[in-house]
UniProtKB/TrEMBL annotation:
It comes from the Bacteria. It comes from Amycolatopsis marina. GO terms for molecular function: DNA-binding transcription factor activity; transcription cis-regulatory region binding. The keyword Calcium does not apply. This is Transcriptional regulator, TetR family.
Length: 197
């Protein structure tokens, strides 16, 4: 395993067990068996580490699904595509909620984290924006009614997934793939009843 991978593994562990607010680069470097100087050769800062953990260490296909949304337009499978998004979002939010929630406890850290993500063109809104853009494209293709507010549909779907992640983490429930698939299908069935042209 290379240095960068060891650092990401350590970051994922520390961020998951201590939360982003209490995960220090010093602790992450120590867990990985390196100095902080070595850590900074591979990552700019803690936000860079967090983005790396989200994209490379969180068990979810959400980022892959989002990257492929453009190719799905016009394929006649809007509900199936939204189910893929929901399954990925449920898994992604479930895994990342324990890491990210603590950042809200410290206003200064939240502001710095928000600024660092904005500089990278990243942030939680990018998921909603990608889903909304997909829905707008399907709308233009005639697959979805012209009066549907794509951004609201994306927000409702992802909001349901995020709320499920919050409640599951709060209750200490472990999630099963089968349960997540049923939940994703249920969310989408409820939403799409008003989508079709």
């Amino acid at each position: 395993m290379n240095t960068r991978d060891r650092i990401l593994d350590a970051a994922a562990h520390v961020m998951h067990t201590r939360g982003l607010a209490h995960a220090t680069t010093k602790e992450i470097a120590r867990q990985a068996g390196y100095s902080e100087a070595t850590l900074y050769k591979h990552f700019r800062d803690k936000t860079d580490l967090f983005v790396g953990v989200l994209s490379e260490r969180v068990p979810s296909d959400l980022l892959t699904v989002l990257a492929g949304l453009r190719e799905q337009v016009g394929q006649g499978r809007v509900a199936e595509t939204l189910e893929e998004v929901a399954r990925g979002a449920i898994a992604f939010y479930g895994a990342t909620f324990p890491m990210a929630a603590s950042v809200f406890s410290e206003p200064g850290l939240l502001a710095a984290h928000r600024k660092a993500l904005a500089e990278r063109g990243s942030g939680p809104e990018t998921v909603r924006d990608a889903v909304a853009a997909y829905l707008v494209a399907e709308q233009r293709a005639g697959a979805i009614g012209a009066d549907v507010d794509a951004e609201s549909v994306a927000a409702l779907l992802l909001g349901a997934c995020l709320q499920h992640a919050f409640l599951s983490n709060f209750a200490g429930d472990s999630e099963s793939v089968e349960g997540n698939e049923k939940l994703a299908a249920s969310f989408v069935r409820t939403l799409v009843s008003g989508l079709w042209a």
